[in-house]
Amino acid sequence: MKYAYTYVMDTLSDWELGYVLPELNTGRYFRPSIEPVPVRTVGLTLDPIVTMGGVRIVPDATIDEVTTENTAVLLLPGAETWHESQHAPVFGKVADLLDHEVPVAAICGATGALAAAGLLNERRHTSNALEYLKMVAPDYTGEPRYVPETAVVDGPLITANSTGGLHLGRLVLERLDLCSKETLEAWFEFFHTGDGKWFYALMESVAAR
Fold it and tell me: Which residue intervals define the domain DJ-1/PfpI in the entry (predicted)?
């Protein structure tokens, strides 16, 4: 069994993974015969954390339990506490996963943390702004590979700015090859535009499975 591990910490930005987690965990729009990807929360310890929205989460596992063999994707949400040194064990895990082509998806403050750890210097990436990365990561040298887009993919690494939860979700589902092209397009466009025609296109694509 492979899991969608979601790193959780105090001040986690509740909304940033709100699009991708339900789709991974339910598999409701996946192609036929593809099973859901269970979501497991992972922390530094099993002690509860409290999100920015005040939601209390007890992690299912610790970061040490995340391996290249049991991970479908590691999701890193934004948070106001990424600058704290206690999160250092996460970056070694990220480097190992990326070296083994296991997807890692980071959004908002998590991209700043990866930049500070030197993990964005050699890969195409985005963030809230180039100036933001320079501010939070003094040793960052990845400016030539910075792309001013909402979300960017470079091999197994997916990065997004703080407005890019939906875009990150699309890239994760695409990278894992879970949905048909038609379903993924309709899913993204419906939530992106709110146009009802995409809702019907999404339902039709699912019915055609």
Answer: 4-164
Cα–Cα distance measured from residue 182 to residue 35, given in angstroms and rounded to the nearest whole number: 19
User: Is 108 noted as a catalytic residue in this protein?
Assistant: yes
pLDDT tens for 117-169 read: 999 999 999 999 999 999 999 999 999 999 999 999 999 999 999 999 999 99
User: Domain residues of the chain, as ranges?
Assistant: 3-178, 180-209
Catalytic residue among 17, 37, 90, 108: 108
pLDDT, tens digit, 9 for 90 and up, residues 81-90: 999 999 999 9
